[in-house]
Specification:
4% of the residues lie in helices and 50% in strands. The protein is mostly beta strands and 978 residues long. A hairpin with a 2-residue loop joins strand 13 (181-184) and strand 14 (187-188). The longest helix has 13 residues, at 2-14.
Length: 978
């Protein structure tokens, strides 16, 4: 650690400058000025003017100028030189994280003669190999998009549903949904516990995003080929900059409502046993919000402010399944209130130095009620609960141009989020499986007493610009994150005594099982022997990258990134270092004018493991997987050796000690190849094609070294508890208790290939368009940090490799002797196939037209192929449904709609309309309406793919429909702008 830190400091100390392109919270303008004969013009005064004032630069001996750290927005560029006519470029749009190349030719004449250039600025970024999209919220407001920044991400190509990780956590370039990085105003707001957006729970998924939509200025979605400055992700990087104040007071009062009365009827879900939360039907939904945003000067040209607050109300009306006790009580409302807020100050110290301070968050509350859908599967309302959740973020950032060839930036940030659930009653959660449908009584079961994460971040970056065989922009930087994550969990109900005399720290989840001899057996399926994890993480990174421009045609981008991660649990800690991530890219502009590029990039990306690994694996999480009792009071344990409920081993614990960590284990990584072509067709209008190839080279996962059948044979040492070993699983990973069969672990397979065709036109001449077609293939046996098979969001410690996968004893012994279903080998290479996020064909068209009379119409079209279907049996040891594949992935199964290998093609058409009413001066009232799913298509999006609801218990709902597309919904809004 000390050597790496010293090296990072030395890199910064020996350098004398900062970045040229790819600023985190700003953009830049660069250009080369020549005369009519093409000779360079040094000494040209370049004045750049925006609503925040004026900045002045001078071209160097090669005729170049560079204007960094520009707030995304529209600028006027004026170029003046004695003996030449002044050149003025209006409406120059600067976008987040992009360098705008602006070649200029000056004609001989008087300085007083102005030549106004009306041609649009180039839209092709010839200094970048990044594949992705910039989404300006001004343009998003003209489109039918929900009012969260994560909803807006789906406009971008390469972004699709991640399935169980939720709509707030999309799959980007084949990632599982928990492998993206979210940066807002330079703050890494990614959830430190699970790698999600905002506050995240394994029960509820993402709750909120941590930032109000009306605070956003621009969203940059990086789906591949990103620079060495970015890492910590094997999915995509989402970079967001918020609005800033200007020399004019600007603001708006707004209100939106999406009432249940303007929503079509939900297609009901019909199930027999209702073992999944989807069995609880949604009757209707509504949401609304209203707030204010305001920005302006405190001191003109020097100090600016911007603020926003947007209180929101969300209501989902639910009903219990037919035949369940709570169905007779009618509808229940799940109510949540969110209060997003934001404040930002910009202090322009000098024309070349500024400080930004940004504060934002989304504190929220869920009223006592059915916050979990499963709360309506009980006999009464005992499983109701309330929620407190949300995030708060702060940052202060300095950006300075110390000389024409040296730029620096530094920031200190804090990102925090939390979730607390409070049950309505304290009672064991009991499921009676002796009857169908199962009867559920008692409390909520597992819940989080406190889930709190804080990330303190320190960043310093710099760029040097110099000429040496061409123009170099050498960017480098150092970052450090000091993370704390504390998770206190519980199972509702009183503590009790295990069969071995151990007292639990929590209540329990209990199942009542039929037995031919004893009538009923009461099985504890989950309980905690301890329930508190206080964890820490120290994450260090530094990078160096050169943008080397040779002439007007070729740019080469070599770079390298170093990442080091130390996780600290209650009992163990470990450091994963030597994570060197090289990047190499090249861009060729055949025209030399910045209007075309052919590019390629290779890079290695390491996964940053969230602190859930430290909480569960490095803290010891002694818990119960199985404990059998004769009585419902859990006082009469079933002795081992007695055959009851189909088992002779009646106590199985796990994680009695912290996970053993392989001292030679390394971080997960993938290698990526990107290539493409982009061409400017005209003003603000470009087309492109790109290819992305990603392959995982290594994964970090926890494993159990005993084959699954050994836990049932009763004579295998160590089979009384599943203990884990954190390593890079592969054929060389040791296996014990092989029963004379060749058994081994396997290398993970995750192969992603994608070809994208894009057509983009920023708003001009009354219209805009963003269209894309993506063909992709996601193949393998390993999704990533999220496992859709069973909804498991435990990064690097999923159950995929808890038992050896290349194991013939599962079917040879476990099947005939104990009733094992499926084949564990289908979790490995034998079962490799299309992964759950595989969507081979996807079309997106978003555009708008602004009529001269003021009416704006926007359209959104999404068409995507369905997701692959695989049937899963329960895990015999854990009793969990959805664990062991019945077939290779994507082979399909029989559904109520016939045999299916994929869900049906999903399509939706959304519309937007807005019309301004002028109120005098700059004031106007804008009336808005959005229609989502215009044709009310309610296509099936999921079938129940669990053959068993628990081990040896058939699932009577196997093959039934458990999810449909959301129905038609209408949102109305009004915004008074001043």
């Amino acid at each position: 650690m000390q050597k790496v830190t010293s090296l990072a400091v030395l890199v910064l100390a020996l350098s004398v400058g900062v970045a040229f392109a790819q600023e985190t919270t700003s953009g830049s303008i660069a250009g080369k000025v020549v005369d009519a004969q093409g000779l360079v013009l040094p000494g040209v005064t370049v004045t750049i003017t925006s609503a925040q004032g004026t900045k002045t630069f001078v071209t160097d001996s090669t005729g170049r100028f560079f204007a960094p750290y520009l707030t995304p927005g529209t600028y006027t560029v004026k170029l003046q030189l004695q003996g030449f006519s002044t050149v003025v470029r209006d409406n120059v749009v600067v976008r987040l994280g992009q360098r705008l190349d602006l070649p200029v030719t000056m004609q001989v004449g008087a300085v007083s003669e102005n030549v106004t250039v009306t041609a649009g600025a180039p839209v092709v970024n010839t200094s970048s190999t990044t594949v992705g999209t910039n989404l300006d919220t001004t343009e998003l407001n003209r489109l039918p998009v929900a009012r969260t920044f994560t909803s807006a991400l789906y406009v971008a190509p390469g972004v699709s549903t991640s399935g169980g990780a939720g709509l707030a956590n999309p799959s980007i370039s084949g990632g599982s949904g928990l492998e993206n990085e979210y940066v807002v105003d330079g703050i890494n707001t990614t959830n430190v516990g699970y790698g999600a957006v905002g506050s995240y729970s394994i029960v509820f998924g993402s709750l909120g995003t941590g930032v109000p939509f009306d605070f956003l200025k621009e969203i940059q979605v990086k789906t591949g080929g990103y620079d060495a400055e970015y890492g910590e992700a094997t999915g995509g990087v989402v970079n967001v900059v918020t609005k800033s104040g200007s020399n004019q007071f600007r603001g708006s009062l707004f209100g939106y409502t999406r009432p249940s009365g303007l929503e079509a009827t939900f297609t009901p879900i019909t199930t027999i046993n209702a073992t999944r939360p989807e069995a609880v039907n949604t009757v209707s939904t509504m949401d609304g919000d209203g707030g204010i945003e305001l920005g302006g000067p405190v001191v003109r040209n020097k100090l600016f402010f911007f603020g926003a607050v947007d209180p929101q109300y969300q209501r989902t009306t639910l009903v219990a399944p037919k035949g369940f006790p709570l169905a007779s009580m009618g509808n229940f409302n799940r109510n949540r209130r969110v209060t997003p807020y934001a404040a930002k100050a910009t202090w322009q110290l000098t024309s070349s130095q500024r400080i930004d301070a940004s504060f934002f968050g989304d504190p929220s509350h869920g009223d006592m009620g059915p916050q979990r859908r499963t709360a309506l599967l009980g006999t009464d309302t005992s499983a109701f609960s309330s929620l407190a959740y949300g995030g708060n973020n702060q940052t202060v950032k300095y950006e300075g141009v110390l000389s024409p060839s040296w730029l620096v930036e530094a920031s200190v940030s804090r990102a925090a989020n939390s979730i607390t659930e409070t049950p309505s009653v304290n009672a064991w959660r009991v499921t009676d499986t002796t009857v169908t449908p199962n009867i559920r009584t008692g409390g909520v079961g597992y819940y989080e007493v406190g889930n709190n994460g804080v990330n303190l971040q320190y960043d310093a970056k710099s760029t040097n610009i110099f000429d040496w065989g061409g123009n170099h922009q050498l960017r480098y930087g150092l970052g450090f994150e000091n993370i704390s994550y504390d998770n206190t969990f519980n199972y509702s109900g009183p503590t009790f005594t295990l069969p071995d005399g151990t007292q639990t720290a929590t209540g329990a989840s209990v199942e009542v099982l039929p037995d031919p001899v004893y009538g009923q057996i009461y099985r504890v399926t989950r309980a905690g022997i301890t329930n508190l994890a206080n964890t820490r993480q120290h994450y260090l990174d530094f990078f160096v990258e050169d943008t080397y421009q040779i002439g007007n045609h070729l740019t080469i981008k070599p770079g390298i990134r170093y990442e080091q991660q130390r996780l600290i649990g209650n009992q163990e800690s470990f450091t994963w270092n030597n994570n060197w991530a090289p990047r190499l890219g090249a861009i060729y502009d055949p025209t030399g004018t910045g209007r075309m590029k052919i590019y390629g990039n290779w890079g290695r990306f390491y996964a940053k493991v969230p602190n859930d690994l430290a909480a569960r694996a490095m803290s010891a999480e002694p818990s119960v997987s199985l404990a059998d009792y004769f009585d419902p009071q859990l006082t009469q344990p079933v002795p081992n050796g007695v055959l009851a409920a189909g088992a002779t081993n009646h106590l199985v614990t796990n994680a009695l000690s912290a996970t053993t960590i392989d001292p030679n284990s390394r971080s997960s990584y993938l290698d990526e190849w990107v290539g493409g072509f982009q061409y400017e067709l005209g003003t603000d209008w470009s087309v492109g094609v790109s290819y992305t190839r990603r392959r995982f080279g290594r994964i970090l996962e926890d494993v159990g070294t005993l084959p699954m059948v050994d836990y049932f044979l009763g004579n295998v040492p160590g089979a009384n508890s599943v203990e884990y070993f954190l390593t890079n699983p592969g054929p060389s990973t040791p296996v014990v208790g092989a029963q004379g069969y060749p058994i081994s672990f396997e290398n993970a397979i995750h192969d992603y290939d994608a070809v994208e065709l894009t057509a983009n036109k920023h708003f001009s001449h009354n219209w805009a368009l963003q269209a894309s077609y993506r063909w992709s293939r996601l193949y393998g046996d390993y999704e990533g940090f999220f496992r859709n098979d069973n909804g498991q969001s435990d990064p690097a410690i999923t159950s995929l490799d808890d038992f050896p996968t290349n194991d013939p004893t599962y079917t040879a012994i476990g099947g005939p002797m104990f009733g094992f279903q499926g084949d564990i080998r289908y979790l490995g290479a034998l079962g490799a196939g299309p992964l759950p996020e595989d969507i081979p064909n996807q079309v997106k068209v978003y555009g708008n037209y602004d009529f001269d009379m003021g009416l704006n119409l926007g359209l959104g079209l999404n068409v995507s192929q369905g997701t692959p279907l695989t049937a899963f049996a329960a895990n015999p040891v854990y009793d969990n449904a959805g664990e062991i594949p019945m077939t290779p992935r994507g082979a399909g199964f029989q559904t109520v709609d016939g045999f299916k290998t994929r869900t049906p093609v999903l399509s939706t058409v959304d519309l937007h309309a807005d019309y301004p009413l002028k109120m005098g001066g700059d004031r106007r009232l804008v009336l808005m309406a959005d229609v989502f799913n215009l044709f009310n298509r309610q296509t099936v999006t999921a079938y129940d793919n669990y053959t068993e609801s628990q081990f040896t218990v058939p699932n009577p709902d196997y093959g039934s429909i458990i999810a449909y597309q959301l129905p038609l919904q209408v949102r109305l809004g009004a915004r008074f702008q001043f």
